[in-house]
Predict the structure of MerR family transcriptional regulator.
Amino acid sequence: MLIGELSRRTGVNAHQLRYYEAQGLLDAERGANGYREYDEGAVLRVKQIRHLLGAGLSSEDIAYLLPCATGEAPDLLGCPELLTAMRSRLRRLDEQMSRLARSRDALAHYIETADRTTAGSRPCPGDTGQERVPA
């Protein structure tokens, strides 16, 4: 099948499919006309890639995991190296979430403090009356 059909069948645009190919996640043959030609298995492979991307994995992580993937969801066949890589990624996500939670708490505290002091509202030093904080 050509890239347009693969795009229609998976809901993934052709630009992304070419990116997956460039990252080594998806294979295509070239026809005599130079067009990419995908086999039927490409539909499943793209669905697996999308699910793994949705789990927050990088294309590098996915390239490592795909040989162990079965089914659309996909299920991953465990091996020590695979489990080590996934646990490492999970630790990095946990650390990011922890940093974000601390940032959120600090910002909420600043908002709460500022809200309490707006009763006798006066302009902030250097205030020009224009909003400077991006939404």
About this structure: The two ends are 45 Å apart (CA to CA).
